[in-house]
Amino acid sequence: MNRPDYPAGVAYGLLAYVIWGCFPLFFRQLAQVAPMDILANRTAWAFVFVTLLLALRGRWQRVFDFATTPGHRLRLAVAALLLGANWLGFLWAVDRHQVVESSLGYFLTPLVNVLLGLVVLGERLNRREWLAIGLAVAAVANELLTLGALPWISLFLAASFGIYGLLRKQVPVDAVSGLWLETGVMLPVCVAWALWRGADGHAVFVPGDAWTATLFAVSGLLTALPLMAFAAATRRLDLAAVGMLMYINPTMQFLTAVWLFDEPLQPARLTSFALIWLGLLLFSGSLWDKSRNRG
User: Fold this and answer.
1) H-helix or E-strand containing 206?
2) The overall pTM is greater than 0.70
3) What is the average pLDDT score of the chain?
4) I need a labelling partner for 57 at 20 to 30 A (CA). Which of 127, 219, 271, 287 fits?
């Protein structure tokens, strides 16, 4: 690809995926806060930040036009709840020192997307894509047979984000407007949680110190910024290039968990990762060939 905006697209994509890859390090700084409390504050601050951004851009009409379409509202509401559940699952994994498992889930996500395309959209798969799905199934079976349990958090993160992505593809709204609507849907749930915890004397939205308050505010910015960068990348890059960049996030999470958090990596789990990495290699090759054929 020789488009002049291609380097800018790669830069935006790197920015998005590197920020997402740093999330375990960032949210580990809030280890003293319950995952649901972090989710409530992250949602509230993201809503505030995106509200200010939309006000500066003067794009409210587009948001309201979209929000008044019944079919769009329903899809986006379900997508918002799935996104919130995915965020909470990730925060739970960080809190429970299971970042290796969360990275496994995000490595699985592209293969879940392929499977959803087959089951929901009736897309036809080629031989390499079928083999990639087979390797992912083998990885999950390996977890069950050798470790004695399914990787529930990995499967939950992959499924929730995969279905969220499927729904978001069906709603024609830009990333910033979509995030405002999604956090707007999540906000009442977070407020209800704060009221319920407040009845026990626990203040969800009132942090105990200035550092925690700062981290909460920054979490809102870090929620919106990579989404904006990702949207800018997808406008400049083809699907294959975006597909190659997407592995940066789970790779950084995996390395952070093993090298910085000292999480254990059993040989059996390394086999699971090897099977998924091989599947992703096949999937990436298929994606690249499809992109070249379209070009």
Assistant:
1) none
2) yes
3) 89
4) 219
**Residue 97 region by backbone torsions, left for phi larger than 0, else alpha for psi between -120 and 50, else beta:** left
Measured distance CA(8)–CA(45) in Å, rounded? 28
Cα–Cα dist 16/229, whole Å: 5
Structure tokens that stand for 74 in this block:
């329903």
Token pair for 285: 């090759």
User: Which has more pLDDT, 227 or 160?
Assistant: 160
* Domain spans, the chain: 6-294
Residue 208 CB neighbour total at 10 angstroms: 10
Joined together, the tokens standing for residue 230 give: 């990702």
Using the predicted structure, report yes or no on whether residue 132 has a pLDDT greater than 50: yes
Q: What count of residues does the chain have?
A: 295
Q: State the virtual CA torsion across 195, 42, 183, 168 in degrees, nearest 10.
A: -140
In the chain, at which residue ranges do the beta strands (DSSP E only) sit? none
**186 phi/psi in degrees, rounded to 5:** -70, -30
